[in-house]
Amino acid sequence: LGLLRAETESLRGDMAGDRADVERLRTASTGAEQRLDGECATLRERLDVAFSDLAASEARLQAEDYALRGRLDEVAESLARADGRSTAEDAALRESLAQASALRAQGEEQLS
Known about the structure:
Radius of gyration: 47 Å
Shape: rod-shaped
Order of helices and strands: H
Structural class: mainly alpha
Strand content: under 5%
Largest sheet: none
Number of helices: 1
């Protein structure tokens, strides 16, 4: 009977130790869970900021693209006007050259 009591007391001691181990593990688990929750919240905030920055950059790039396209349209119109003027100037020069050639031919004819 004494041996049985000793074994029972030993088992009770082991159970108390096991309970303490379980409580330590619960406390550690709860602490780890809280740390992970905090890290997840921090990462979510950083991700939100990154997406916000990305959206702002995209909007800025779209505005710049729109402005550049407008400027390209202006340059294309300016080149088209310059080309039209150049074509008109070329035609006027050709007409003047034809008139000068005709006058030269008349002058040569009169000299002969």
